[in-house]
């Protein structure tokens, strides 16, 4: 099972996106766990996930996450959620982005 973590300012704006991603994963029979959390909570959860996607409005946090994973020797890819996919609440597109980062 692949574990995908989404982070935004409060974890709320990505919750609908998570629902759409889960629907697509179920339709395509992809085994995933997807959760959306605030950026503050994401730091403590990185060891438990395979990829971190950050909401476009929080792109400034990418460097902080990259520094943190380097300092903590955590091996996890990090990227900004595609702005168009985020705006369209494109669950399929964001799921594909996450799985590509993981290597599937």
From TrEMBL:
Keywords: Kinase, Phosphoprotein, Phosphotransferase system, Sugar transport, Transferase, Transport
Stored SUPFAM superfamilies: PTS system IIB component-like
Biological process (GO), any one: phosphoenolpyruvate-dependent sugar phosphotransferase system
Entries under InterPro entries matching the protein: PTS_EIIB-like_sf, PTS_EIIB_2/3, PTS_EIIB_3, PTS_sugar-specific_EIIB
PTM sites of type Phosphocysteine: 8
GO terms of molecular function: kinase activity; protein-N(PI)-phosphohistidine-sugar phosphotransferase activity
Domain PTS EIIB type-3: 1-104
Record protein name field: PTS sugar transporter subunit IIB
Taxon lineage: Bacteria, Bacillati, Bacillota, Bacilli, Bacillales
